[in-house]
Write a structure and sequence with these properties.
Layout (H helix, E strand, L loop, with lengths): L2 H9 L4 E4 L3 H5 L17 E2 L2 H6 L3 H8 L6 E5 L4 H12 L3 E4 L3 H8 L5
Parallel strand pairs: 1-2, 1-3, 3-4
C-alpha cells in the first residue's frame, strides 16, 4: 500500500490502522535516528508484533486488536518488515489486512513535506 492510498483510506475512516512497533516507538520515546521525528500516525492503535505473536488463538488476536473479524486493517512498523509479518497473523485472524510498506520511515518525512 502506498502513502497516497493510506491517506485516502484514513480520510474516509475506512480502515483500522495498527502500529506493530514497540510501545516506546509508538509513543515516540524510542525510535530510529534516521527519522526526522518520532511518534505514530494519528488514529493508529498500538499492537506490537511481539504481543500478537504471544496470542494462542485467532480470537486472542481479534481481542488484542479490538476490531471484529472481517474488518479492514492496515499494519505498519518502521520500514515494513514487522508489519509484513503482522499482516499474515492478522489475515489468519480473519481480517482483510494490508501492509503500509513505507511505514513510519516514510510517514515521518511526508508530514514534514506534505507534497
Amino acid at each position: 500500500m502506498t502513502l497516497e492510498e493510506l491517506r485516502g483510506l484514513l480520510e474516509r475512516r475506512a480502515v483500522l490502522l495498527v502500529d506493530v512497533r514497540t510501545p516506546g516507538e509508538y509513543e515516540g520515546v524510542t525510535g530510529s535516528h534516521c527519522d526526522p521525528r518520532q511518534g505514530h500516525i494519528p488514529g493508529a492503535v498500538n499492537v506490537s508484533l511481539e504481543r500478537m505473536l504471544e496470542c494462542r488463538s485467532q480470537e486472542d488476536v481479534r481481542e488484542l486488536v479490538g476490531a471484529p473479524q472481517g474488518a479492514d486493517v492496515v499494519a505498519y512498523c518502521h520500514v515494513g518488515s514487522r508489519s509484513r509479518f503482522a499482516v499474515q497473523v492478522l489475515e489468519q485472524a480473519g481480517y482483510r489486512a494490508r501492509n503500509y510498506v513505507g511505514s513510519w520511515h516514510e510517514w515521518s518525512r511526508a508530514v514534514l513535506d506534505p507534497g
